[in-house]
Amino acid sequence: MLCVISTDIKKSSSLWKKNFNNMFKALQWHNAILRACFNKFGFKICDSSPEGDAFIASKNSKDDKIAIECIENIIYLMNYARSKTFLDVGSGKGYENKIHIRIGLACGKKTTDVAKYKAQGVTKSGKVCSKKQLHTVCSNKIVFKSEQAEITCGGWEKHYNYSGKTIEVKIQEGKVKWSDVKKFYFMPSTIKRKGMVLFIHNKCKSTTGYCGKASTIVDISNKLSKTGWIAIKVKRDKTAMLINLNITTDKDAKKEFDKISNKTVDYCAAFGKFNVVLNKDFANSYCFTPDAFGDTVNAAARMHNALVFIKKPEGIKVTETSRSSLNLGSGNVFIYKTQKIKL
What we know:
Layout: E1 2-9, H1 12-18, H2 20-40, E2 44-45, E3 55-60, H3 65-83, E4 101-108, E5 116-122, E6 128-136, H4 141-151, E7 159-162, E8 165-168, H5 178-182, E9 189-202, H6 215-224, E10 230-235, E11 239-244, H7 250-260, E12 265-279, E13 289-293, H8 295-301, E14 306-309, E15 319-322, E16 332-336
Parallel strand pairs: 4-7, 12-14
Antiparallel strand pairs: 1-3, 1-4, 2-3, 5-6, 7-8, 9-11, 9-12, 10-11, 12-13, 14-16, 15-16
């Protein structure tokens, strides 16, 4: 039996907007807790994890007891970290100022859906490395069910959601100690860049939300990687995230969006400043696995066949939209929709 645990941070976009530096530091403690617990209980973390601030980890087991124990340890350590202010982002109590997570679990018969995408590294100066690696896409029905359990979980402190049923868990000190967590804590290097962020969404016809294969997303990501795009991660069967550091003007962003748009998938893009994170787990000393965080990334994730500009562009017809309507805080953003797609 395959058991999959998925986690996600409650209202993370608001936390990033509140204080980026505090959130980034707190996120590394969050990551250390999850890595320490998954390591202790033998769960393999998905290649694409963490997906920003979400984790997927799996383990073959005869029953779900070890998964439940792993979750109990995660909850205990998250509570402990909050009490010690390690997960503070703003002043005050609650998920508006501290990191809280939802946790989902699904166990069942393993289904094989193997797809690999070409991941590319970045140097400390922000130059794209020539070397690429093949990363596996974590995509099957058990992964999907674990995420659905997490998404529908009404709370995030004292229970988790298991295949549609909320189960109370024991909040007690477990096998993973804080000294174990500290071994997994590190602050990766970051570089500030202006560029374009792109999310690709598969048009899933399944009523369950599970498309069943990742080949379409992988093929498009690999094709775009030949034209300046860096495939950061392909997220299961439906979504991929890419960045392009060569696009530095509003005009070039519009031109690129017009060029790549088509009807086979949904394109969600943004242009502006964001932070490129250089993770130290790439295959060599000068080339790092990149990730991206910040306002521009969050804005891109909320588009639908549209390109959003964080600042108003000159000479481009855009629609001014309130940030609050997109759950992006206060102020306005500017949305451009290509004429090549009939929306």
